[in-house]
Amino acid sequence: MQLSFTAQQIADFLKGTIEGDPTVKVSDFSKIEEGKPGSLSFLANPKYTNYIYSTEASVVLVNNDFVAEKPVKATLIRVFNAYAGLAMLLDMVEKSKPRKKGIEPMSFVADSAKLGSDVYVGAFAYIADGSIIGDNTLVHPQVYIGEGCTIGDNTILYPGVKIYPGCKIGNNCIIHAGAVIGSDGFGFAPEGDIYKKIPQMGIVIIEDDVEIGANTTIDRAVMDATIIRHGVKLDNLIQVAHNVEIGANTVMAAQSGISGSTKLGKHCVIGGQAGLGGHITIGDNASIGGQAGVISNIKENAQILGSPAIPVKDFFKSSIIFPKLPDMYRQLNQLEKEIQQLKEEQNKQSK
Amino acid sequence: MQLSFTAQQIADFLKGTIEGDPTVKVSDFSKIEEGKPGSLSFLANPKYTNYIYSTEASVVLVNNDFVAEKPVKATLIRVFNAYAGLAMLLDMVEKSKPRKKGIEPMSFVADSAKLGSDVYVGAFAYIADGSIIGDNTLVHPQVYIGEGCTIGDNTILYPGVKIYPGCKIGNNCIIHAGAVIGSDGFGFAPEGDIYKKIPQMGIVIIEDDVEIGANTTIDRAVMDATIIRHGVKLDNLIQVAHNVEIGANTVMAAQSGISGSTKLGKHCVIGGQAGLGGHITIGDNASIGGQAGVISNIKENAQILGSPAIPVKDFFKSSIIFPKLPDMYRQLNQLEKEIQQLKEEQNKQSK
Amino acid sequence: MQLSFTAQQIADFLKGTIEGDPTVKVSDFSKIEEGKPGSLSFLANPKYTNYIYSTEASVVLVNNDFVAEKPVKATLIRVFNAYAGLAMLLDMVEKSKPRKKGIEPMSFVADSAKLGSDVYVGAFAYIADGSIIGDNTLVHPQVYIGEGCTIGDNTILYPGVKIYPGCKIGNNCIIHAGAVIGSDGFGFAPEGDIYKKIPQMGIVIIEDDVEIGANTTIDRAVMDATIIRHGVKLDNLIQVAHNVEIGANTVMAAQSGISGSTKLGKHCVIGGQAGLGGHITIGDNASIGGQAGVISNIKENAQILGSPAIPVKDFFKSSIIFPKLPDMYRQLNQLEKEIQQLKEEQNKQSK
């Protein structure tokens, strides 16, 4: 937290009510099971309830409906939703940190590039000809921004982000270290035994409020654009191929990947290491489980799992049977023999 | 396109024939379903045929055998193969772009490094002692080239590529941002409870005409070399372990990985997120599907899928049955009961 | 090797015994099947035994119990364990290489940062305010070390490593190019249709003797720390989510991933492309196979495979049956018909 607040100040900020000493001070956060004196913790998940009676945390956020069954040493702050309250506090602390601005020496900003007000450009960052950087945007050290890119306001490019020429990034975006935006799509035409490169002339468009994880890669389109709609959240090490479109507020977990020209709807949830084939359409609100392999269109609201993916309930039902396969195989062959014997016996009897 | 051509000029270049206004000008590419006036589009996939009657694109490349069933507003250029024609046009435009050359200030080139003619070295690039860079090669900003590397002619190293000491890259290669060439192989000898590092003394050799995707990693060999043969195309986020050899003109889709000492033949196709075990051999022209897990040698021309991988037809046939497993399980147990009853009845009758 | 040793010198170093010419010199390593004159090779795996009779290597390390069945041209050095002997030699050569030190121009070291003795800081590296770098540590070009980080002694940060503010790295660690340590965990709270970011206030702690592969990503905790215990070895392109803890001497192969808050025990082995769900516990010495998907707690010493993962023996037994599913399905339906006929026949007979 690197700041210090009394329980009363926090309760006022969160519009909560205090039980215990309102003057106790906290200057750090901790998990309830590892709570240290001088720290603030929270209880949101009921399976951690027992820890509230033994935690050393000085202040604990709890839901309004929490009922203590034993004495609690910590000062409690009751709020409507303890987890949301915690997020508000973390956010407040985050925003109180000083924000860098100014252009550090040993950075390269092309004469024809345009920087908004209060921009930060770290050392060893490279901003090429004709690029435009919006107000309050942070371009951390070792970032590369190619020719003719547009970056919006209040966006953070963490160290080492690489943005190829011509790409457009919106406002309030966060792109983590090592992410690559606008690399060539994987497009080759077979020509006898060899593959001839099809130049990738399009760009990547990233709308507002998008977060992109560390070392994630998003390829530029063959022509037109690969598009990441507003509010999308991508985790680390994700692959987004050329001409993909990801609908607004869709979230994808780490190491998942999308093949070329596939379109995802809004508000989908894609699990870790899931893979989506090319040229397919995923409906709004679809949920695709971890390690799923998707090779055909998926309807909105579908919940699928497995490779190839099937409805999640069906997948789990069949997965429970899978370890029984060797027994089923033996049983089936045994039954076949018994039926053969039954037939022979019946034949005898019928004579 | 950032250039402007008349339909006539394009038809001449592609040796095609014109239907419509030969003087109409285009200065951009577009997909047929999103075609804009002043742009050139193409029709190669029959499932997009309907769009040709409504597209706003000024010029459309079509195959010689295309037969219009309704009036078409755009000028048509008939060619032998519309997709190949498009690739030729994209290529021509790509090659007309000015190519950077010269050494930017704030780059580091060791005194003992040798640069060919017309090399570009971007700011914050680092070229260490004894490295040799071929003619016309582009070393973009923030690239690292370790001691004693050799890079061929006409090769492009995009921003942030890292090449460890001693590695050799051929001519006409393209290595995308964030790729790492020559990191240590994952080699450890267990020694009681701990793992002792086995120094990785080999290198990586990349032959001519290889393309390597963003954030892909290729480890150096324990001794000798990890080898990527000519014409290989690797997508993004691929892992190539130590002592692997990838045969000429093999292509690998994103997020696939190869374990140590495995040898791939020529002209193989590896799907996205596929994983190959260590110390195995994959024959020429093998096709390994997305998310496949390969743990044994694979013959040439084989087509496999699944984890562990089996012939692709078998995999799909069994995958269709997989969701029926719970029903099969119930049915099997039901049949067992019925057989028991049949036996008992038969026993009664036989008495 | 870039050095030159006689067979006698090597035998003395390894406490081995010589058969053949003790004065022959070697200056390189080679694999036995590709052995070149002037190089040293080794025979550890019996399946390569045949090569010892034809190898051109000048010296071959063999196990004490090796019995030649034909004449061998090379000088043999007999040691207790040929593979361990090789590792010792590789290690000795590695350590004899000159180690860089000093601060290169065009690097950035904040005034408030503290550097130990004999530290190397490469050009275009960035060391932010308040960071502390231990003795003999190598900070290669283009590395980023954020505010308030602590890096131990004898640690190597390869080119382009990015370490976010506040993280702690131990002694004798090796972090390969492009790895990202301390990026934000993937934490969002749904708020209507959108996802609100939960600031990630924790850090990453990496203990001693840890190796981290190229382009691997390790996220910082929401609060407290993501912890990598001593001796852990992570391969390339691995994802470690926020609040994960990896126990001492656990090894993970490339492209595997761990979801948030999961705890791995000591001395586990995780195969390539395996995925571990969130909030689970993996016991000590567990072995999780390649591409496994783990969604529940795993006991110590367990060996599991598949997605969802089951005991490895069960997985292979069922995998053998999987391709027989279409036949089983037909057979089952055939048996059902035959039972129906048997019943009808029995009914007739009983009348």
UniProtKB/TrEMBL annotation, chains A, B, C:
GO terms for biological process: lipid A biosynthetic process. SUPFAM superfamilies: Trimeric LpxA-like enzymes. Residues 24-90 form the UDP-3-O-[3-hydroxymyristoyl] glucosamine N-acyltransferase non-repeat region domain. Its EC number is 2.3.1.191. Keywords: Acyltransferase, Lipid A biosynthesis, Lipid biosynthesis, Lipid metabolism, Repeat, Transferase. It comes from the Bacteria. GO terms for molecular function: N-acyltransferase activity; UDP-3-O-[(3R)-3-hydroxyacyl]-glucosamine N-acyltransferase activity. The active site is at H242 (proton acceptor). It holds the Pfam family Hexapep. Gene3D superfamilies: Hexapeptide repeat proteins, MurE/MurF, N-terminal domain. Pathway: Bacterial outer membrane biogenesis; LPS lipid A biosynthesis. GO terms for cellular component: membrane. It is an enzyme of class 2 (transferase). It catalyses: a UDP-3-O-[(3R)-3-hydroxyacyl]-alpha-D-glucosamine + a (3R)-hydroxyacyl-[ACP] = a UDP-2-N,3-O-bis[(3R)-3-hydroxyacyl]-alpha-D-glucosamine + holo-[ACP] + H(+). Homotrimer. Catalyzes the N-acylation of UDP-3-O-acylglucosamine using 3-hydroxyacyl-ACP as the acyl donor. Is involved in the biosynthesis of lipid A, a phosphorylated glycolipid that anchors the lipopolysaccharide to the outer membrane of the cell. Belongs to the transferase hexapeptide repeat family. LpxD subfamily. NCBIfam families: lipid_A_lpxD, PRK00892.1. This is UDP-3-O-acylglucosamine N-acyltransferase. The gene is lpxD.
